[in-house]
Amino acid sequence: MPYSYTMSTTHTADVHLTETLHDVLVIGAGPTGLACAIDAQDAGLDVILVEKGCICNSLFHYPSHMIFFTTPELLEIGNIPFPSPNQKPTRNEALEYYRQVAAYYELDVRQYQRVTGVAGKDGDFLVQIHDRFGRRGMLRARKLIIATGYYDLPNLLRIPGEELSKVHHYYDDAHPYYDMDVVVIGAKNSAAIAALELWRHGARVTIIVREAAIHRHVKYWIKPDIENRIKNGEIRAFFNSNVTEVLPDSVVIASPEGRVKIKNDFVFAMTGYHPDFEFLQMFGIKSEGPDKLPVCDSETLESNVKGIYLAGVIVAGKRTNEIFIENGRFHGVQIAKALKEALA
Questions:
Q1: What is the CATH code of the structural domain delimited by 167-269?
Q2: Which of 78, 295, 323, 339 has the least C-beta neighbours within 10 A?
Q3: 15-153+273-342 shares its CATH topology with 167-269
Q4: Is the entire prediction scored with pTM above 0.90?
Q5: Angle at the Cα of 154 (from 149 to 255), degrees rounded to 5?
Q6: Domain 15-153+273-342, CATH 3.90.1200.10 — does that match?
């Protein structure tokens, strides 16, 4: 049965309604969204993309000196080689690569446009967007692909003081924290990397780990490094512990030894991220089970809402460690095949 979403009418800005009915609208212009657009375009379809930030917005907000855990070949999209002299490419190399791919395919990417509403049904969806200045617009498409990723929504600690400006859920660069007392919360790759970089750039680092040890899945060249720094006393560690409160000049930790209060200037809560399930619900997409797996066909990736397809990590719900660029980039092939048949 067709569904609809009532769009906001409280904004006073002009509405610019496009008369063009595109074949496909891709929501999200990260590597997976770009791959989906390329595959649909190669199938002869008219495709546009809308992105609430810049192209590859999540990747842009990764740590500035980040190195991928994978090889350039596994990050390639659109059958375009990823030229890198490094066995493991850097964030900046990846951004350059994806920009060049988007330019080569002349993809129509509407950057800094946030999707805020949707109406219509399969064959004629009407998508409401807002730009950076709150101005509204409309886009029409016969089919939708949602490839929004998950990096924009951190898993919150939900403790007193988390709202303080000293608490960060994203790590970017170590330089501003030289000679500062920094707490890193977490036991996986992002936490270990942040702790090591901060320590190597002159911060006094304490890592708080809920489990009894650094996570076993931390990359093999990182795990012994962080463990040795802890063993040597260069990075202080509290295991089987949780931060229970953040104060302007300290943090409170619940540890096996009891309540501990330590001096602190900044906190990095590297506790993971999750997809925007409310955004999916806005489209009428259902989720199932404790992992909130979105309902979609495993072959076509079409959701329970006819004409709306899912791609990338959002297909896995809360199980964000199952889909990465390396495998999510192939979702476009599945979807393009289904779209070609549906729109024939």
A1: 3.50.50.60
A2: 295
A3: yes
A4: no
A5: 145
A6: no
